[in-house]
Amino acid sequence: MSGASAHRWEAPDLDPDARPPAPSGPPPKVGPSVEELAAIEKAARDEGYAAGHAEGLNAGKAETERLQAQLAAMLRSLAAPLADLDQEVGDALGALAVRIAGALLEEAYAAEPERLARLVRATLDTAGLERNAVEVRLQPQDLALVRPLLEGDSVKLVADAALRRGDVRVHGNSLRVDAALETRLRSAFAALRVEESPDA
């Protein structure tokens, strides 16, 4: 048998007082102590906890932001119909107010035709036209009441059955003024809405 080597076996020393022979070479590497292992484990646990805590906070923050954005979008989608409804209700109330005011003014003009005569004069003054160059159109019943009050104003008065009670239209060569009752009331109502709007 070539290449085989043999060693002689020696029996171990059984003397309890005998010391083992001193190792030759560097001392053998000893592992960490129990305290060192506990410290390493605690450091690893603390590092893992800190990393997990930071990751959890970031994930929670991202989820909170996503939910806030979703809630804000839902609130905006709920607010839009309410704003539209608010506008619709405001318009309906405005139209109702115009109708009620119109009915009251029609009665007032019938009871006191002087009011309608003052309106005709104010419309003519606003238009700034020569009175003999204009035509004032009134509803036939209003015309019958106002004609005696406007005789000295040298204006041409014309009955117009298409007009409602309280309506006044002035026609001149280059100008037409619509002083219809509903137009005046809607204009007044629009001015009130502008005054009370928060943006004004």
TrEMBL record:
Annotated spans, Disordered: 1-33
InterPro entries associated with the record: Flagellar_FliH/T3SS_HrpE (IPR018035), T3SS_Stator/FliH (IPR051472)
Pro residues bias (residue ranges): 19-30
Keyword list, A-Z: Bacterial flagellum biogenesis, Bacterial flagellum protein export, Protein transport, Transport
Domain Flagellar assembly protein FliH/Type III secretion system HrpE: 67-186
Recorded coiled-coil stretches: none
Pfam families: FliH
Top-level lineage group: Bacteria
Family: Belongs to the FliH family.
Record function comment: Needed for flagellar regrowth and assembly.
Name of the protein described by the UniProt record: Flagellar assembly protein FliH
Species, as recorded: Pseudomarimonas salicorniae
Lineage, top ranks: Bacteria, Pseudomonadati, Pseudomonadota, Gammaproteobacteria, Lysobacterales
